[in-house]
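Troubleshooting log. The previous structure file for this entry was overwritten by mistake, so regenerating from the original sequence record. Sequence copied from the archived sheet and checked twice against the printout by T.R.
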Amino acid sequence: MRSPTGASTPRSASPAIAPADMLLFAEVVREGGFTGAARVLGITKQTVSERIAKLEGRLGVRLLERTTRRLRMTDAGGAYYERCAAIAAQIDEANGEVLAYQAEPSGILRVSAPALYGRRYLAPVVARYLLEHPKLRVELVVSDRRVDLIEEGFDVALRIGKLDDSSLTTRKLGESHVYCVASPGFLRSHGDLRPSALGTARTIGLRVFETWEVAGVRARVTPALVVNDLEMACDAALAGVGIARLPAILCGDAVREGRLCVLFGGEATVRPVYAVYPSRQHLPPKVRLFVDALAEQIEPMRPLSARQTAAAVATARAPRRPAKR
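Regenerated output below.
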């Protein structure tokens, strides 16, 4: 704003009032005096009196009339109390909402997981989690692409194998055991395979060229069938197309039922399984409880037993029975 001569005139600035002093004033009025407010706030009566006096000094107006027996609000004090009490109520409401949120998780939990593990591992966890926490909603995105948790707004992700982002908080959930498997019919047709023969064997893979390491032998593999989905690779192995590398979570039932055989003495490639999330500090209950639920779901992470792999090998080597006439 400028004066008629063109010079700028200073604006009247509001006095610097600490919100804590406004809340203190509201507490004094609610408790009916300095003594009650001091008791509620855990400070001395003298401190309360001094802070109210300083508040009145900054405002330039008397808020309370003091007598030896009681306090009485002035007209200005009454109007000021209404505002201060409203602020105090909003603060109490905000704190209450956050505390309730901490006690009973609510809102949306966004989870990312590889397709196979999302279907086979996370689905039962999510179902129980939602039943236990009805105020929550879950958005589960299954994709073999590793998402950026921060940029894409995910709360937690499931990761298999080596981690590439050291800034994330991790919790190891278990291990994925990957086996070389094939159908009994395929093995009867192709004989007793060894790891050194993988380079020329018919295989099923996820890439045009792959390197497989089994029992200390590294082999350059050119799959006869390339797919982008492990469940399709399992179906192909069951159909006798070739050898596939499959995790126990996927091939376990077929091995136990004798429809797939574990090769190379049951040698497994072990890959760690992690839950990753942005930060450990002030971890929201919805994330903490979900990660705890994941850690409890360890059954699918267990390797195939030695008895199961041995039975599968025996099935593969069993001679074909002649058809009855």
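The chain has a mean pLDDT of 85. Archived copy saved in two places this time.
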